[in-house]
Amino acid sequence: MSTPATDYLPPESTTDVARMVMALMSEVWIARDRQIVTEYLLETKGSVTRAELDDFVPTGELAEAIAAERQRFANLVAGAPLAARQRSVAQILERAGMARPGTSTSGS
Length: 108
Hints:
The protein has one domain (14-95). It contains four helices and no strands. It has helices spanning 14-45, 50-55, 60-78, 89-95. It is flat and about 55 Å long.
C-alpha cells in the first residue's frame, strides 16, 4: 500500500513528532506567559525584577486573561492539522479563538 502524498513521515514517527511538538508548545507557552506577566508588571509598576517575575502569581482578571490566551494558543496549535481540510475564514478564525470582524462572538 502506498503512502498518500500528504504524509511526510512514516506512521512510526508520528509519536516522536507529537512529543517534539508538545515540548515546543510548552516552551513557547512558558515564554508567552512570562511576556504577559512582564508586560503587566511594567504597566502597573513601571519596572520588574527577575525575582518579581519568578514569584508573581496572577489573580482575578489577569489570571482569566492568561487562561484564555493559553486556550487560544493550544487551540491554534492543536488545530493546525485541521487547517489542511478546513480552510474557510470562519474555521481559521474559530481555531484561533477569534471572531470574524463585524460579527458577534455570542452567536446572535
